[in-house]
Design goal:
Blueprint (H helix, E strand, L loop, with lengths): L5 H8 L2 H9 L12 H49 L5 H16 L2 E7 L2 E8 L1 H11 L6 H19 L2 E7 L4 E7 L1
């Protein structure tokens, strides 16, 4: 899957055909096109990253790095509280929830395995990392490796700490492997 930039996504959907149909129809019904799943996932990634990094940038400008760490901590604690509220306390349950979102919302290629109480989430291709690379290609200062560091250290480590679970992460060129186990 090749990730397009947000502008590229819009151009691929809003073709001349739809523009011409809109121009011709003054008061008639216009068919709204369906978007293929791959493009939906690319849009979700772009929206998620824009919201996350836009909010983070605002917080760091207003409150500094300490404020950003507090902001990220609040978000991580909310995710952990949501998992607890949903009854997702065991490594397997948490891993399946994460992998389900990664696969379906972000288009990640992911698998979950379990062995002796340790659950692994293998992201063979991480949709969010691909999104970070896409933003970098259009001149954004976002770097995929920095995104991965933020993802793990500023978010998931805190979530798993709240859940009293242990997290170990090994990064790859296109994703990562997260190992989740009881503390």
């Amino acid at each position: 899957m090749i990730y397009k930039t947000p502008v590229g996504i819009l151009k691929s959907i809003w073709t001349q055909k739809y523009y011409n149909a809109l121009q011709r129809s003054q008061n008639s019904m216009i068919d709204v096109p369906d978007i293929p799943l791959e493009q939906i996932q690319q849009r979700v990634v772009a929206m998620w990253m824009g919201s996350f990094y836009g909010s983070s940038g605002y917080v760091v400008r207003k409150l500094g790095k300490k404020g950003l760490r507090e902001f990220q901590g609040i978000g991580a604690h909310q995710v952990a509280a949501t998992f607890k509220q949903l009854g997702l306390n065991e490594p397997r349950d948490v891993a399946m929830a994460m992998a389900t979102n990664d696969k379906n919302l972000f288009g990640s290629v992911v698998e979950v395995t379990e062995n002796d109480g340790v659950v692994e989430i293998k992201r063979h291709r991480c949709g969010l990392m691909e999104g970070a690379k896409s933003f970098a290609r259009v001149g954004a200062s976002l770097i995929a490796k920095e995104h991965c560091k933020t993802c793990v250290e500023s978010h998931w480590q805190k979530v798993f700490s709240d859940l009293k679970l242990k997290l170990d992460v090994e990064h790859t060129d296109d994703g990562c492997t997260m190992r989740i186990s009881p503390q």
